[in-house]
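TICKET #2291
ISSUE: user wants both folds in one file
ATTACHMENT 1:
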Amino acid sequence: MKFQWMAVLAIVLLLGGCGGKGGDSDPDTTPPDAPTGFTASVEGETVELEWVLPGDADLHGVLVLRQAQEGPDGVPEDGVEYVPEDAIGPSTVIFRGPNTANAHIDTPPEPGRFCYRVFAFDTAFNYSGGPPRCVNTDGEDNEPPSFEGIETATGISNAQIQLTWTAATDNVTSSDDIVYEVYQGASEETVDFSTPVYTTEAGMTSFTVFGLNPGDTYWFGVRARDLAGNRDTNTVTRSASTLEDPDTTPPLFDGLEEATAMSSSQVHLSWSAASDDTTAANEIVYDVFQADISGGQTYGSPSHTTSAGATEFLVTGLSAETTYYFVVRARDLAGNSDSNDEELSATTTEADLTLPYIVSDNFLSGGILANGTTGFTASVTFSEPVTGVNGSHVTVDNGAVLSGFSTSDNITWSFNVTSLADGVRYTVDFTDGIQDLGGNNLSPTHRELYVANSVLYVRPGGSGSMTGASPADALPLVSQAIT
């Protein structure tokens, strides 16, 4: 009996000591690296997804999520195994593949805007994903901007590097509406084009990176993004080093000179340009400090910061019939700010509750489409200055194209309507994304176009027969002359 108990004890001890990563080891909670180089492109009714797999030894597979509109917002929970059609928040799993899968073709359930995200996972189902990629499958803009990438990177202080590039172009978005994403790394190899470090304001062709270390070298890349969310894929990089010796002299600046209420929610500020011993006037930025009482500004945290070289700024989002107090200070590229206390105040006007509307347009006047052409230049005049007249808020269906939005006074806008075809009805929609300076939105309206035997017929809206090639089929439309 004693021998039997000793044998049992020996077996128990032997089993308890076996297993390597057994009961005494910690569970695996470290995910593999995320897939990189993720792209999504529309091909007819399908979306082609491609990515580069990470090199982790324990990579077990990949998971692809899809979500309508923006996203995907769903993130897989570590330790949980998912299969296609599982819901993760507002996202849906559309593909689970092995550790060799680097592509997938998706057929969305209906036309529209969809966003995708790919995750890598290990045998313990720890997940790691990169940024999403979004596409439109309903015939909207899916073409990225044309952009050559960053051109120069220059160290301008012991903590700042300035980047420059030539403006991108796009088939729909104007250059003034294109934004740029800046990517940064400590070496050329570490510039990660899947995750931007900064995003510029629209239309900028330069950007100053702040908060760097003196005498260090940094690498940068820049990509362009249009209003539809399409990005170019250039991989151009440039490097620069910050300066060793710090600039500690602030700009010379006399401060704010004018503060004028422009509406119930806006105040216009203006000043004369500052000067500096090392920073050019067109590179000096201005910090706007705003307060509800005189002397109430918090100088450690500006309320607004202008673009470089600005000598005016429009403060928006204010309350009606309210007095605001402003101080403006100049800041050079080294981060030195002047210390003026020149304060001016302005009182916003009574609230503007009047909605903007279209006063007139050339949709109801004109003649025949010029021989050999398939479009015309539209002109629309609003009741007051408006913003948001662009390809996102003025749209057309059935394959026609709107482009070249322009204005000189924000009241009368023009744009091109092209790719019109005989026997086709088109609707040009003006949406509530168009708004006046008081933030009041346009009530959505539209114009209908119909081309019959190369004659364009239009009207504000309504119903009626719009088939066939005869102008009579388009009645009660009014014939328009196109010049």
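ATTACHMENT 2:
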Amino acid sequence: MTSDQPGIDPRFDPIFQRGYDGTQAGAARVVTASSGTPRDAAEPPARTDDGIQEASRPVVTIEYPEPTSAPPSGLNPFIILLWVAGPGLTLSAGWLMYDTFASRMTGPVATEDQAMLQLIWSTAPSVVTVGLAIIAGLLFWHATGWRRAR
């Protein structure tokens, strides 16, 4: 860098650099556009009778496409799937709990079956809870949809 002040880069305006103290020559450099005139000059605001200047605002029109058809009125297939899965999980897990309990009461259980019975006995209550939660969520979803329709 060839400058009178250390830390001043001559490629850039020194007034915007750290360490500038105002003594360097060429500090009041004027930057002009190459064309000399602004490309998109705005018109001055119009004056009204009361002396208030009002700027003209551009008129913006928004065109929305016309709906081509009504939304499908069929049932949501995911809701149907959930209505099958919720009661299905609840009933099947409940039956598995009952069957596991009944098989333990009838007599001795083979060692190979004991692991499966323990797995069913420990996971079935959670599956029943998930099934009941699905049913409760679906009832809530239908209730809010019914409320919106009214």
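RESOLUTION: both attachments delivered.
EXTRA DETAIL ON ATTACHMENT 2: The chain is about 45% helix and 5% strand.
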